[in-house]
């Protein structure tokens, strides 16, 4: 978490795994958002990913056979996403490369999102036998119930251009200018009246009555139950095995 003249930058720092959300990353994210909430000098938050991806989604490899850790991961992500949404300062997601599943959930939890035409955004959970319950409430508030329903039920990802058209992203910039564009937007927001922005954020939160602790807790519980089911377990194991085979093939070709 870095700060410069009231603009805070929070970076997901697991670039070798495309900033996939491990339990440790989610715990750190929740703690960092809490620090932002208590920082009286904070005016704007920019959320970004280190390296070539914003966030590749949940990293379920380490918790696939551990229901307790899996439940903790999903509950923590739900709390962190809601805390991010409830911050009294404007928030901007700077989305490079990919925002997938839980990563796209963090993207739409922010007030604004800047991405580039070639990025990939979306929710492929149903293709893996997973229920995208945690991201659903935030997505519905961002792009509307009809579009959210279609996106979550059909799965898959869309380009940054399509994400902008759908409303997942509020701003589109060339990839080379992505971070400067996000910073320029943060500077513009910082110039606004701090009290007016805080009151506006609180009012907007009041207008989202379905986004509350109990809904997000239930969403995490629902997702955990589905992931622990036999169908999801089989699909995930097959996906992990295929990914490992591809990685082995790539290593052999590089040798």
Would you summarize the structure shown here?
With 255 residues, the chain is an alpha/beta fold.
Put simply, the count of helices is 10
Spatial order of the strands forming the largest sheet:
1-2-3-4-6-9
Distance between the termini: 38 Å
Number of strands: 9
Overview of the structural elements:
The strands form two sheets. Strands 1-2-3-4-6-9 form a six-stranded mixed sheet, sandwiched between helices. The chain has a three-stranded mixed sheet with strand order 5-7-8. Helices cover 53% and strands 14% of the residues. Helix 4 packs across helix 5. By secondary structure, the protein is α/β, with parallel strands linked by helices. The N and C termini lie far apart (38 Å). The protein has helices spanning 23-37, 67-86, 102-109, 136-143, 145-154, 160-166, 178-190, 194-206, 213-227, 230-254, and strands at residues 2-4, 7-12, 44-49, 91-95, 98-100, 112-115, 120-122, 157-159, 171-172. The mean pLDDT is 92. It has ten helices and nine strands.
Notable features of this structure?
alpha/beta; 255 residues; 53% helix; 10 helices
Give the topology.
Layout: E1 2-4, E2 7-12, H1 23-37, E3 44-49, H2 67-86, E4 91-95, E5 98-100, H3 102-109, E6 112-115, E7 120-122, H4 136-143, H5 145-154, E8 157-159, H6 160-166, E9 171-172, H7 178-190, H8 194-206, H9 213-227, H10 230-254
Helix pairs in contact: 1-2, 2-3, 2-9, 4-5
């Amino acid at each position: 978490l870095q700060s410069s003249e009231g603009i805070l930058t929070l970076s997901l720092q697991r670039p070798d795994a495309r900033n996939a959300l491990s339990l440790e990353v989610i715990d750190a994210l929740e703690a960092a958002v809490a620090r932002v909430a208590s920082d009286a000098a904070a005016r704007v938050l920019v959320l970004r990913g280190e390296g070539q991806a914003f966030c590749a989604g949940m990293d379920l490899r380490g918790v696939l056979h551990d229901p307790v850790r899996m439940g903790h991961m999903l509950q923590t992500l739900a709390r962190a996403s809601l805390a991010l949404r409830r911050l009294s300062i404007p928030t901007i997601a700077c989305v490079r490369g990919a925002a997938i599943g839980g990563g796209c959930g963090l993207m739409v939890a922010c007030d604004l999102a800047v991405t580039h035409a070639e990025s990939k955004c979306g929710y492929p959970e149903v293709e893996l036998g997973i229920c995208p319950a945690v991201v659903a409430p935030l997505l519905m508030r961002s792009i509307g119930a009809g579009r959210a329903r279609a996106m979550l039920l059909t799965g898959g990802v869309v380009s940054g251009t399509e994400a902008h058209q759908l409303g997942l992203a509020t701003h589109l910039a060339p990839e080379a200018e992505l971070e400067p564009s996000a910073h320029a937007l943060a500077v513009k927001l910082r110039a606004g009246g701090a009290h007016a922005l805080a009151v506006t954020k609180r009012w907007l939160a009041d207008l989202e009555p379905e986004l509350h602790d109990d809904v997000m807790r239930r969403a995490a519980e629902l997702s955990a139950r589905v992931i622990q089911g036999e169908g999801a377990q089989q699909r995930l194991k097959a996906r992990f095995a295929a990914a490992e085979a591809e990685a082995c093939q790539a290593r052999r070709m590089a040798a």
